[in-house]
From TrEMBL:
GO molecular function (one): ATP binding
Protein name according to UniProt: ABC transporter ATP-binding protein
The organism's place on the tree of life at top rank: Bacteria
Residues annotated as domain ABC transporter: 2-230
Pfam families given in the database record: ABC_tran (PF00005)
InterPro entries with a match to the protein in the record: AAA+_ATPase (IPR003593), ABC_transporter-like_ATP-bd (IPR003439), ABC_transporter-like_CS (IPR017871), ABC_transpr_LolD-like (IPR015854), MacB-like_ATP-bd (IPR017911), P-loop_NTPase (IPR027417)
Organism name: Kocuria soli
Alphabetic keyword roster: ATP-binding, Nucleotide-binding, Transport
GO cellular component assignments: plasma membrane
Keyword Ribosomal protein included in the entry's annotation: no
């Protein structure tokens, strides 16, 4: 479970400070997808960065399970991210020379507490099958489509069996149909693996697929969507 309570984040802005995230609270339960939408510059990526423990907020609480992450040192948050948080950015950012299977194994190899290689290989292969890449274990990024690369990216984020998934605009480099498939995949993996998933999207068509939806405006978060009602 991911819990944000009264989170505020500011950035330097000339002589003063700009409030990117303004007193935001939300809870993302295991096995559910929380969708966040909002205009450009409203603070969505800043909120994800805080939830992913990549930035410490000025004030407020960010809990992963029962761990208060704002009390941790940078090296402790790095360990927490590796072990308990999966992060998917807009672009897949795969390593060009590695096969799909090796992209996942490279993640599993990080850290002192990693599982034996045989186990990691089995998990990597299962995850690639789960994201629909049964026939592409040995493919390198240039041999994959944009949608397939994003599938590898998602499988890689799941490699360490994270409790929390942070997903920023996963469909922005894809056409609408491929985007729908990727959203469907994230929803089904979230349910199957029991992650608490926080996902930012500009595409309002995807919102009905999520368990809860919030809209950001000027750093503040409100429930539901600001989209005009259907006539
Ligand atoms: N590192 C930073 N330093 C200073 N200001 C920043 C920084 N990161 C973001 N901001 C500012 O914080 C506000 C929120 O930015 P953020 O990127 O979180 O918005 P967003 O909703 O994700 O936008 P987009 O949809 O365009 O990605 C913006 O005004 C932005 O200029």
């Amino acid at each position: 479970m991911l819990t944000l309570q009264d989170v505020t984040l500011t950035f330097p802005d000339g002589q003063s400070r700009h409030t990117a995230v303004n007193d935001v609270s939300l809870t993302a339960e295991p096995g559910t997808v929380t969708g966040i939408t909002g205009a450009s510059g409203s603070g969505k990526s800043s909120l994800l960065a805080v939830a992913a423990t990549l930035i410490t907020p000025d004030s407020g609480s960010v809990r992963i399970g029962d761990v208060e992450t704002t009390d941790l040192s940078p090296s402790q948050t790095a360990t927490l991210r590796r072990e308990r948080i999966g992060i998917v950015f807009q672009q897949a950012n795969l390593l060009p020379s590695l096969t799909a299977l090796d992209q996942l194994l490279a993640v599993g190899e990080l850290g002192p507490g990693s599982a034996p290689r045989g186990e990691r290989r089995t998990r990597a292969a299962q995850l690639l099958d789960q994201v629909g890449l049964e026939r592409a274990h040995r493919a390198r990024p240039h041999e994959l489509s944009g949608g397939q690369r994003q599938r590898v990216n998602i499988a890689r984020a799941m490699m360490n069996d994270p409790e929390v998934m942070i997903v920023d605009e996963p469909t922005s480099a894809l056409d609408h149909a491929r985007g729908q498939e990727i959203i469907g995949l994230i929803c089904s993996l979230t349910e199957a693996l029991g992650t608490a998933t926080l996902l930012v999207t500009h595409d309002l068509d995807f919102l009905p697929r999520f368990d809860q939806v919030f809209t950001m405006a000027d750093g503040g978060l409100s429930p539901g969507t600001a989209a005009p009602p259907l006539r």
